[in-house]
Structure formats: structure tokens, C-alpha cells
Amino acid sequence: MEQIKVELGFDSYVIHVGSGSLAQLSKLRDGMHLSSTALVITDETVGALYGAQVVENLRQAGFHAEMKAIAPGEESKSLAVAEDLYTKAIEMGLDRLSPIVALGGGVVGDLAGFVAATYMRGVPFIQIPTSLLAQVDSSVGGKVAVNHPLGKNLIGAFYQPRIVLIEPNMLDSLPEREFATGLAELIKHGIIGDSRLFAELQQNDKAIWEKDPVMLTRLVSRSCRIKADVVQQDEREASLRMILNFGHTIGHAIERAANYKYSHGEAVAIGMHGAARISRDCGLCSQQTVDQVCDILTKYCLPLKVQGCTVRQLEAYLMRDKKTINGKINWVLLNSIGSAVVKNDIPEHIVTKALSQITIEY
Ligand SMILES: NC(=O)c1ccc[n+]([C@@H]2O[C@H](COP(=O)([O-])OP(=O)(O)OC[C@H]3O[C@@H](n4cnc5c(N)ncnc54)[C@H](O)[C@@H]3O)[C@@H](O)[C@H]2O)c1
Ligand SMILES: [Zn+2]
Predict the structure, then answer these.
(1) pLDDT, tens digit, for every residue of 40-77?
(2) Would the CB of 268 count as within 6 Å of ligand 1?
């Protein structure tokens, strides 16, 4: 079992990673000054697999716990679904010290976190992330949100959980494409902040594909450590936190331009390839670094190139990105594996060249 402390002053919390981490639920009532009613928010798929176990754990710990399952999928991350959840919370009589538990992937985590941040101006929030993406990325850092019909994650807040419990065994039931999406974020954390994690990913692909729980515990906790370190230094994304967007500037453009044919992780993989090429062409990193990025993505069956959109379309979406300010894009680029920088003065022709090298137009 690994424990990662996220130091955010009054909002500090611990991430528990490893088989048996759910046992921490039994200690919640003593340690955290919580009321006895708990609402578990999950989706129908995850709820059917793990809901009963989590509710039972909470009941044994002395909570009156009930579960509410939403339909799986991004469409549920809406104000309308949030309103249903507020209704459930009010009907159950949740008070200001009643915990809301998110049991699921990033959709459930973001939505339940948003409800926890806003119901009665904020109630205790507990994360049990069940997808690899949620375990290595979305459950750490305190960004919670719902989507608006005009854009993703536009309605949200920074709201830290009280505790995060990660059971790698839960990944056994995760579909392969979802697992690969999480791997892209895990690889991203190695590339931007931890060359040792990167080397472990290079060497242990077989054990990772087999979802070896000991290996996953180690890698997930290292990945959480990197994100936690960044978030500790820059909770509200003033500067350093931007490095977590490595691969995402182009990745988001790909998701939209190719009409969501690519999963988030696949789009980010192509985006990381593009960003590595930009880094090399700006003289920041060597060709060897670009090769290392390509090799690891290929090893994990992630794509290097996009098909189904044009360079022009990608450029148009880059300019529309919500993180583009006054026409300037904040590029997260590489010095080497394990070291990233943010630059906003990249010449257009370098970007266009990289985009044309990662796009298969037909
Ligand atoms: N808050 C943040 O910092 C942050 C960061 C990255 C992404 N996100 C958000 O996360 C969301 C994507 O998260 P996601 O990829 O986890 O998607 P998701 O929550 O939709 O989960 C993916 C699918 O896997 C299923 N699933 C999850 N865990 C499972 C398990 N253990 N066994 C079987 N099936 C399981 C879900 O039912 C779902 O169908 C997006 O909405 C994105 O905006 C947030
Ligand atoms: Zn991402």
C-alpha cells in the first residue's frame, strides 16, 4: 500500500493506493468529523460491479449510505444530472458534514465533485476512482466540473477531496480502450516530470498490460506523486500546472477536428508526438527525445498520427482552444524526458510543420 500526501495547507489530503485501500472507509467516521449519512454517486456500469461493496463498507463503518447511479458517459456531466443529485441529497437529508463519495471514472469524479463543492456551499468529498485515467489524473488536483452545451468543463470549481482511495484491482474490469486512455496520461506524467517512471513504463509493458496489481500500485502512485507535486506548487493553474497539459493543446484540437473518433488518450498521444517535434524544431530537445516519445507510445499501441482531418482544421481548432489567450498558445514543450517547459512564442511555421508531420491527409 502506498500513501501520497497532497500538501495544500488546510485542504491537504492523502491518496491511498493499493489492494485493500477501501478498508480506509472504516476509519472515516473516527478521523474526519463526518455526519452519519453518506451518498455514493456512481455510474450504472461501475455501480453494478463495485457499488454494493462500497455501500457495505460504509454501512459497516456506521454510515447510513445510499447509492445513486447515473447513466455512464460524458453526457451525464451536466447541470441537469447535477440537479437530480442535489434532489437525492436533499431527500436523504445530507447536512454540511455528510460525505459525498465518487465511485467511478472521471465523469463521476468531476460531476460528484461539482455536486459536493456546491451542495450547501460544500460538503466533504471522497474519491474512489475506478478508471486508470481517474486514478492517475482526474481524481488528483481538485478540478471539478460539469459541461455546458457550448463547451466542456465550463461550469466548475477547484474543490479538493478529503481522501482518495485507489484499488488497482478494480482496473481488471476496465475495457482495454479505456485502459489505454489512462496509460496515455500515465506516460505523459513520466515524460513531463519523472524519467524513472518513464523508464519503468518502457521496461514493464507486459506486466502493465496484464494489470499486475503490484506494478500498477507502484506506477499509479508515482504518477499521482507527480501530479500532486505540480498541484501543490500551483493549485490554481497560474503557471507550473500548465505542464500537465502536455500533448493536450494538439490533442483537444484532434478530438474536435476528427469528430471524437479518437479517444482522449489517443488524441493526447498524437498531441505529445506533435509537441515533441515542435520542441525539437525549436532547439529545445534532441531527435533522441522525439524517438523515445514515439517508441513508448507505439509500445502501448497508441497512435502517432491523426487521420480524418486536415492541418488547416487543426490550426483553426488550436486558435479556438479556451487556453489560447490573445491568439497566443501556451505550448508545453520538452527539454528532455522528465523535463518540460511552457513557451508562448513558438513561430507559426514550426507548428504547421509539426502538424503536417502528424496528420495523414487523404
Ligand atoms: N478533473 C480533472 O482534473 C480531469 C482530468 C482529466 C479528465 N477529466 C475528465 O474525466 C472524464 C473522463 O474520465 P474517464 O476516462 O474515466 O471516463 P468515464 O468516467 O466515462 O469512464 C470511462 C468508462 O469506463 C467505465 N468504467 C470506469 N471504471 C470502470 C471499471 N473499473 N470497470 C469497468 N468499467 C469502468 C465507465 O462506466 C465508462 O463507461 C472527462 O469528463 C474529462 O473531462 C477530468
Ligand atoms: Zn487528459
Answers:
(1) 999 999 999 999 999 999 999 999 999 999 999 999 99
(2) no
